[in-house]
Write a structure and sequence with these properties.
The protein is α/β, with parallel strands linked by helices. It folds into 2 domains: 281 residues, no CATH class; 56 residues, no CATH class. Strands 1, 2, 3, 4, 5, 6, 7, 8 and 9 form a 9-stranded mixed beta sheet that branches. α15 runs antiparallel to α16. The radius of gyration is 20 Å and the shape is globular. It starts with a strand and ends in a 19-residue tail after the last helix.
Length: 355
């Protein structure tokens, strides 16, 4: 069966665009793109690239100006309120410029994982190229197949017990820098008051260790509208009652972090209702950029990057696929470079290993 499918790929930086008829790149927070963020201040050339290659979340009914608080949910809100501009798709999805669904279950299971990867259900990848896309099965046919067989596609359940031995509430309280657990409790209070149908599933699941991560999904249109009505019905109420301006830069993103919990609650309820749900592993790409994008940065110099990172990237550019030599060279460079303070300020860089 042919479906009209649109998958938003949310970004705030230039990246390696995904090839396929279902992907729509969207620039989250375009209305405030020129303002300094957790990643620094965007330069003019990057902004022009985004204008040329992505749609913005700042037209029509939108909350683009609140992106620093809502993260990728500003793009999600835009899609909800401007659905006709996407062509009224039967299915809509959301991925990130550096996080993708792995449609190849066998490949995902075959990749060795430490406790961190097992707990958060992801694998690490270097670059976005044909080899990578083939391994994870990210193509039109697999997207069509999963939509033909499932109503809701989300990430595999995390298992917080493996990595931290903390339940969902304790994880929010102690792990996410700058957040306040009182906001988590307020969120639950609002849900129980406004959406009492969710009360039973919350009592059953909220103090467990498994949740849906990354705010990534593909779902039927009807489910999407139901989800957005639920999600923003809760988040807007939280925003009314909490002054996030005094929070740290990361803490100001609390609404985005809470959205992940709200999605988990929505998925739990849909599973209980018998909705046909498919769960997939996630690939997190270290360097999701075009080769020319990194070369341009290297030519100009990047004051926010550690010297060793620049050298590593230059070497990777020269060796292409030879990862073993690249790792050896990287380790050799580490012993010579002592400038580690800048590591905390690394911006997202990378290359597309195109041979």
């Amino acid at each position: 069966m042919d479906h009209n499918i649109k998958i938003l790929v949310v970004t705030h930086v230039p990246y390696k665009l995904l090839e396929g008829k279902y992907f729509v790149s969207i620039h989250a927070g375009r209305a405030i793109a020129s303002e300094r963020s957790k990643d620094g201040k965007i330069n003019r050339s990057d902004y022009e690239w985004l204008l040329e290659n992505t749609i913005g979340d700042d037209s029509g009914d939108n909350i683009s100006e609140k992106n620093r608080y809502y993260s990728e949910c500003s793009a999600l809100y835009w899609a909800w309120k401007n659905y006709d501009k996407l062509g009224n798709p039967d299915y809509i999805g959301l991925m990130h410029y550096r996080r993708h669904f792995v449609f190849n279950d066998k490949y995902f299971e075959s990749v060795p994982k430490g406790n961190w990867e097992k707990g958060l259900q992801f694998i690490k990848s270097d670059f976005i190229n044909d080899e990578y896309l083939g391994k994870i099965g990210l193509n039109d046919q697999n997207i069509e197949n999963v939509c033909n067989n499932y109503d809701l596609i989300v990430s595999n359940d995390s298992d917080l017990e493996i990595i931290r031995n903390r339940n969902i509430r304790e994880d929010y309280k102690t792990t996410i820098l700058g957040t306040d657990v009182k906001d988590f409790d307020l969120m639950l209070e609002i849900i129980n008051k406004k959406y009492p149908d969710y009360k039973d599933v919350i009592l059953e699941k909220i103090f467990g260790y498994k949740k849906t991560l990354y705010q990534m999904f593909i779902m039927k249109k009807e489910l999407f509208f139901e989800y957005c009505d639920f999600l923003f019905g809760v988040l807007f109420e939280v925003e009314k009652q909490v002054d996030f301006s005094a929070y740290s830069i990361n803490g100001q993103r609390s609404l985005g972090y809470l959205a992940e919990i709200i999605m988990s609650i929505f998925v739990w309820k849909k599973e209980k209702e018998g909705i046909n749900v498919k769960k997939l592993g996630i690939s997190m790409v270290d360097y999701p950029f075009e080769k020319k994008q990194l070369e341009k940065i290297l030519d100009k110099g990047c004051p926010s990057c550690a010297d060793k990172f620049i050298l590593q990237m230059k070497y990777l550019l020269s060796v292409g696929k030879n990862r073993e030599n690249a790792r050896f060279e990287y380790n050799r460079i580490k012993t010579k470079i002592k400038s580690y303070k800048k590591l905390q300020k690394l911006i997202d860089l990378g290359i597309n290993a195109k041979d």
